Amino acid sequence: MYFSRKNLSIPYIIFLLAFVAAPMLVVLYYAFTNGEGQFTMTNFIGFFTSPNTIGTLLYSIMIALSVTVLCLLLAYPSAYLLARLHGHKKPILLMLFVLPMWINFTLRITALKEVLTTLEGNLAFHPFLNTVIGMTYDFLPFMILPLYTVLEKLDTSLMEAAADLGANPVQVFLKVTLPLSVPGILSGITMVFLPAMTNYVVLDMMYNSTYIMGSLISSYFSAYDWHNGSMISIVLLLIIFVLTIATKQFGDEANENRGTVL
Amino acid sequence: MKRFKKHFLLLFLILLLAGLHITLSGCGKKEHEDTLTLRICNWEEYIDEGGWEEEETIDLENKDIIGKNSMLDDFIAWYEKTAHKKIKIEYSCLGTNEDLYNQLTLGDKFDLICPSEYMIMKLMAEEKLEPLSDDFLDETQEKNSYIRGVSPYIKEFTHNISINGESIDRYTAGYMWGNTGIVYNPKEVKKEEASSWKLLIDSKYKCRITMKDNVRDAYFAAMGIYKSTELQELAMRPYLESNLERAEQLLKEYPNRLQQEMNDTSRETMSAIEQLLQKNRTNFYSFETDNGKSDMVTGKVVANLQWSGDAVYSLDQAEEVGTILEYSVPYECSNLWFDGWVMLKDGIEGNKEKKDACEAFLNFMAQPDNVVRNMYYIGYTSVIAGGNDSTILDYADWCYGADEEDNKTVEYDVSSFFGREDAIITTTPDQLNRQLFAQYPPEDVLKRCTIMDYLDPETTKELNQMWINVRCFNPFS
After folding, report:
1. pLDDT computed for residue B26 by the predictor
2. Do B300 and A58 touch (CB under 8 A)?
3. Pick from A126, A237, B59, B202: CA 20 to 30 A from residue A6's CA?
4. What dotted CATH number matches A59-261?
5. Does B195 touch chain A (CB under 8 A)?
6. ipTM of the complex
7. What is the pTM of this model?
């Protein structure tokens, strides 16, 4: 038996089959069956006709969008500064950014809850705002790191050339740096947007008054209704899938454009 | 394609080996056939795990109690000594009743589990439970600590719950019990306000009260609000009736009527309660699963819907940071819950020896010293009162009884739980609204406690849907 490098992937393939593919099939089975195990589309139709699920979906998207935008606004400047730094300060600063990730998130959220309570007096008056702050706090590192990786690898000579050819700093940023960092932005968005729609544990930890898609799935599952719960998971998966393809398309286009410009 | 086949072959081989391993290890088990294995599933931190420090010793009047080893190890040693049989325990923990139920449907096997009363009723209705033996329920035998020690109040209460014509006390040995009520901060909320479920939706305390994120508890409390006047009338009617015979009749019917009213799941009631919760959901600080206790202690909220066991915990915790909290049971009604041990048909599989061992375990757990150890460790109230043995009553006195230097004391009557007239604890007046009251409610509270019925799958589904409707964000409503 010859040994090819491809064999190295066998452990991962087994892992994938056992823990990703097989559970996926189970979820699919439940999504399209009813209690008696017969094939049915009721769950699917139910998802799109119930004002509750649609309302919660819209609300989750609103939260996820706000979180993503806020994360991006916070992460981009810091990642940019971090990438542009030189010398002995850089590893220390980088560590300071990664440090919060070493602390378990339950601890971080509990601390955040106290901080926000001190600031606002009563959390319950601003459920949407607090949810967005909590999630942004939790997901920020996932936005900073991909951005940092991309920005760090940027060839500074391109920016110097742009400046040399008469672009002012704003133009250099908008025409060179920003387009070149699109892959980082996209991977940051996928890492933040999707969890923000479902991660109800953050809400649960803070104080549980907002209800998002993840909470809905958990409600169905704890009520033994695996069929509706699975259907929601499948629909969310589809949304993720479409989004990934769209961003990939967008990323490719951006790459192509850059190619022609250069 | 060929390579693909090879990969699959490899995978197949691995699976085969794994399968072989299981069968081999299965064969190996035969050697230890004389050791019986009990598979027990219980809540987390719901049994004394031992390892107490010397200074934790509970020094009662006539004996000292300390948990040196874990309860399970002590049982294994005790069983070997008394029954001369070696035993092994596979102990696992459950997160929620629903998780446990899912585990059972997926094929996990246990011999002895400790679910809550409604899950016991569900499992009983599905005929999954092994009945307790007559021997275990025989009060005349000295060894039967459970049946000799269980509180007469609990005994009568469980005896009156039946599924398909059979009383559930044939199937379950109770463990811990409690009621639901309201924990409140007396500096912010008056006792009179906290004595009604209506407090939960009082707009005076907007966003300062927590609700449970649990459909049954929320439904129950909301029912108390919705039917407040009716429930009061129901309780008063026997005393307003001039015809003595009729009054007695009404008094007798009261528990059943109360249970019916509180478990009303008719369309109209359900939608009325949905509206009530929907309308008031922004009045709640949160729908909590576990945060309510800490939010109460840190003062983020001024009152919360709470189970008495957790209420005691909240009160204790708050005391440590210098806040005094109190507990009240609304006058409308309260929910009596209990967790009980049940044996599973699937696990026992008709094995007499196993059943005996399970029942021996239940009796061991019901021995007064062990009850005290578990209660001290868990903080909940055991259904065991101790019968003639006064250890458990002494323990309650040890916990909450008045000290010599207390100059104001009151007599607190716990005779209806302990079933003996001398069961009176001399305590400080504040305990009437605090831990002692939560752990051992007085007779009038016990009277207005009722259980949540086991609901058929269809109603459960409707109720769950109602809860999702309440919790969901609906832009069209």
Report:
1. 42
2. no
3. A237
4. 1.10.3720.10
5. no
6. 0.83
7. 0.83
